[in-house]
Structures are given as C-alpha cells and as structure tokens.
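Below is how a single chain appears once it has passed through the pipeline. First comes the sequence as given, then the structure the pipeline wrote out for it. We keep one example in the README because the format questions we get most often are answered faster by looking than by reading.
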Amino acid sequence: MGGKKPLPLIIAVIAATLVFATHATAAGTINVKPHADVAASLTTVGDIADLTGFTPAEKSRIASLRFMLSPQPCADLKMNAAQVKGRLYNAGIDTTTVQLKIPSLFTLRRTCTIVSGKQLVEGGAEFLRLNPREAGGEFDVEVKSYPADITLPSGNLEIKYELENSNKKSAGAQGFKARVLLNGELKRVLSLTSYLRVLTTVASAARDIENGSIIVEDDIDLTKVELSTVRPGAITSIESLIGKQAVRSIRRGDIFTHSSVADIADINPGEEVSIIVRGEGFEISAKGKALEKGYKGEKIKVLMENSRKVLTGTVLETGKVEIAGE
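Resulting structure:
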C-alpha cells in the first residue's frame, strides 16, 4: 500500500507535465530568408524573416523589432548564421524559447534609385528643345559630356529643370540646373551648364557700321554662338534690325544689342522744324530749331527762330512740332 501513489495524484502530475511541455514547444518559428531587400534606412525583423506559430499580437510585436540599420542604398551586407542570431538576440528575442531557422549565409540589400548622368543631361536637353522661350529664343542643343550617376534611396523620383534669368525676354548668359526630388523632397541640385552646349542665333554686323548709320539688310549676318556667352539684350532676327539707326560705331562681327541701335527719331537735335502754336481761335506757324531728339507724341524743347525763346512742344511728325498757346 505504502509504495503505491493514489491514481488522482498520478493523473495530476501527468497533466501538469503535458501543460508545461505544451508551453515550452508552443513558441513560434522565425525563418530567416537567405536574401532580403529593404527600402527604409532601418531594417526590422519582419523585413528579414517569416514568422509562424505566433499569436497575431506577438507576431506584430516581433516583426516590428529593430534588427539593424540598413546598408547604404544599392549596397549589400552579408552575415553568417551566428551573426544573424546575435542580432536577433540584441533585438530582444529570446532565442531559447523560439525556433530559429537561419541560413548559413544571409544577405541584406538596400534597394535604391539611380539617376544616371545621361538621364539628367539628355532630359535637360529635351527640356530646352521643347521650351525655347525659357532661354529667350530658338536654339540648338548639343550634349558635351555626362556627370556622375546619383544614387538615392528607393522612392518616387522627380527631376525639375530651370534656367536662371529665365524671366528675361532677350538672350543672355544663362545657368541651367536640374533639381532632383525624391518623394517630393529636394535631394540634389546639379548645374548642367558645363555638360550642354546651347547654340542660339544672333544678329551680328557684316561690316563696320558708323554711328548714326541706318541699318540695312546687307549690314547683318546671322551667327550661331553659345548661349552662355551672349550678352543680355542681343538681337536675334534681321527683321527687328532693318531700319534702325546705329547709336554708336559697330565693328564687323559685333553682336547687335538693343543698346547699340534705336528707332530713327522723327526729329533730331539741330534740325530745322516747323513750329505750330495753337490756341483758342488762333494758329501761328513759325520756324525754329530742335534742341532734343524726339519721336511722334513725345515732348521736346525747340528754339524759336524769331524770338530766340526756348519752348516745349509735342512732335507731330517728321519736322513738325506743336506748341499749345495760352
């Protein structure tokens, strides 16, 4: 009798043993993949392993644990099984209560976005061809070289091109830039000026032109030059020059600018003019001399021939000035 244990006690011991064994083996499995690609700068356990046998809450908790900082974009990091196990332990996983399946060699790769120099420059060239007004006129674009590729993390890539001084209507020195954005955030600003040759057509003097000369078609050549060397105000068409007057001496080969020519004035200083003085019920004509250059509708000073008085009148047309009488 004394050597036998009561049956209920035996059953209780067996049940307790079974419950303990069930808890000891009920923990899930962390199955580390041989290769994992990550986009973020931080790698979690869920990024590198499949989790099975856990409750939903426990699975979510383990998956969010920090495994390590990710490699640089486009870079690989290789680890053996012992190194992976050590990092899982450091992440807060009790490696004695979960089943671990780790390959002998694990590779972690950071995905990336590569912006090639060719993509940047040829995209910029196409932008200029499609938007000639951005640079002040029609032109040809040639690619000279390409910059180095740009490596960025994975994301939504956008490239925006812009010309400095693009608000100027006339041709002039321009700086051409590419702005590289990732997920709407500016990552790089790259000058493309040295990688592109932008040729624009400008009007240049076909021969020496004296100050005061009236420009005719034979005075004009059309020349292609690099946009970056063109001074602001350069004239780009023959039509806009014909009939203008040189306001200074222009040497052969010089580029015509808006400051080197002007419209022919209706009246020039020193010219004799017909002066009409009009008032209420009267009109008087007299001779005089223009003291200033003027165009139709402008006010200029004139010297009356008979009285030697200096008066201000309005240019009516070539050689004629009107003065309002009192």
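The longest strand covers residues 196-205.

See the next section for the split statistics.
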